UniProtKB/TrEMBL annotation:
One of its GO terms (biological process) is phosphorelay signal transduction system. Its EC number is 2.7.13.3. Pfam families: GAF_PdtaS, HATPase_c, HisKA_2, PAS_4. This is histidine kinase.
Length: 493
């Protein structure tokens, strides 16, 4: 299904909510196409007196009569008089003759959608009549339901703005089960799938002739857990959704009140067994909780390791040994910080800006507590995968430490950290990270890399699949630039 909205945007006569009402119609009219066993097309007038197709829906309960997409095209000449009559009369118009083509016989109806006394668009229903068999009770009931909804459209009563538009998985459809009730909530008809859904809940008797509210109430074992919307849904009084659970079975219900000019004369209730969907969702929630707990325990274990290293460093007599253990503690603490952040979220992505803001300042202070070093951060890292965040945090930690210890070298100065995301030549996303200082600059002769820089180079090349480059900073000091691809494919290639 597609929608062609430019003509609506250009229509100056629409009042508040008119365009949104038509969008709500297109978002929910698959229901009518399935009930009517018909293709639906939405037509809107254009200045030259013709109509343009805004949207098209095909039924899932029957085969389509239109195999090609015609959204955005002008109306056929033979169909326009019928649409003109419906636009003017504001009542449902039926073609007086069956439309015969080389392949099918088709019955066409034109339904004006009227709001606040003004016709906003016309829906045409195209039903294949080539099948000559006698329609079943299910088909006759479905078609009557479709007619009632379309007639409500001519009165501006459907679609209803109170209808939930949430995208929760498991929303019931016509084929999942349909129940039609009268104004008192008595079941007039229940489709086979609807009956089966309630049988899985434990209702073994016939639904027809009984109040759906009483049936549902009798099935509920724990009344304390009942959704407050349930009574209004099972009586068909409000166009809402709810969910009931009994005997390990979850049933999603959606009510659609049926109204005319005077009163509510009935309701449709769509039902769907969503037990498997909810079971899978619970598994995902359980897995998320397990993953968070694992990150939390890893963080605790790493903090224990850092504490043991600290205790060991106090017993060291060698200053070089103490310094080595201090560097090890800092690296362990950086990894622990990433796991702490992951233990607090529901996804495996990390808001890296929140993490690095703390780590950046802390790394500069720990590297040389006696120096007066200021830090400045520019740009945004954004959301990064967890397997990306840990090595990048370690790299930045080592580079900031190196800038303070060797670049500034017991002098006052500033360390800058900047990040920028952009698209590369092949539309891949690239993250550029720069760590700079205004210190002594690069040494005149290359010297052997220490452990910290070896860690940085290894992590950038193997874990981040990126490149790293040292250069002189304009204005004095050193600048380290790292580039890495954020797309999984580019990282794995």
């Amino acid at each position: 299904m597609a929608i062609f909205t430019d003509p609506i945007k250009d229509h100056a006569d629409f009042g508040p909510g008119d365009a949104e009402w038509l969008h709500l119609l297109v978002g929910d009219w698959q229901l009518v196409a399935d009930l009517a066993f018909s293709d639906l097309a939405l037509w809107f007038p254009v200045p030259d007196g013709s109509y343009v197709a805004l949207a098209h829906a095909r039924p899932s309960t029957s085969h389509t009569v239109f195999h090609s997409d015609f959204v955005g095209e002008r109306i056929r000449a033979d169909l326009q008089p019928l649409v003109d009559r419906a636009w003017t009369s504001q009542v449902i118009e039926r073609s007086p003759e069956t439309n015969w083509t080389a392949e099918t016989a088709m019955r066409v109806e034109a339904i004006p959608f009227v709001r606040n006394g003004r016709t906003l668009a016309v829906v045409t229903s195209h039903m294949d009549l080539s099948s000559s068999r006698m329609p079943s009770r299910l088909e006759l009931t479905y078609r009557q339901c479709a007619y009632d909804l379309l007639r409500m459209g001519t009165l501006g009563l459907w679609p209803d703005f109170a209808t939930p538009t949430g995208s929760r998985r498991g929303a019931p459809r016509v084929g999942d089960g349909l129940i039609r009730m009268d104004a008192d909530g008595i079941v007039q008809y229940a489709s086979p799938n609807g009956v089966s859904a309630f049988r899985r809940l434990g209702e073994m008797e016939s639904l027809e002739g009984r109040a759906l509210a009483e049936i549902t109430t009798a099935l509920l074992k724990d009344r304390r857990m009942v959704d407050e919307t349930l009574p209004l849904v099972v009586t068909g009084r409000m166009p809402w959704r709810t969910e009931i659970e009994s005997r390990g079975v979850s049933l999603s219900l959606r009510a659609i009140p049926l109204r005319d000019e005077k009163e509510r004369f009935g309701a449709l209730v769509l039902c769907r067994d969503v037990s498997e969907l909810r079971r899978r969702e619970m598994e995902l929630v359980s897995k998320d909780a397990t993953i968070r707990e694992i990150h939390h325990r890893v963080k605790n274990n790493l903090q224990t390791v850092a504490a043991l290293l600290r205790m060991q460093s106090r017993r060291m007599e060698s200053e070089e040994g103490k310094q080595g253990l201090a560097q090890a503690m800092r690296r362990v603490a950086t990894i622990a910080l990433v796991h702490e952040t992951l233990s607090q979220g529901l996804t495996q992505n990390v808001n890296f800006d929140e993490l690095i803001d703390r780590q950046f300042r802390l790394a500069a202070e720990v590297a040389s507590p006696t120096q007066e070093v200021s830090t400045e951060k520019e740009g945004s890292f954004g959301e990064l995968p967890s397997d990306f965040a840990t090595p990048l945090a370690l790299v930045i930690n080592e580079l900031v430490t190196n800038a303070v210890e060797h670049g500034l070298s017991d002098r006052k100065g500033t360390v800058w950290l900047s990040a920028a995301r952009q698209r590369g030549a092949y539309a891949e996303e690239i993250l550029t990270v720069t760590v700079a200082d205004d210190g002594a600059g690069l040494p005149p002769e290359p010297r052997r890399e220490g452990l910290g820089l070896q860690i940085v180079r290894t992590l950038v090349q193997s874990e981040l699949d990126g490149t790293i480059e040292w250069s002189a900073r304009p204005g004095g000091g050193t600048e380290v630039r790292i580039e890495m691809g954020l797309d999984n494919e580019s990282r794995r290639s």
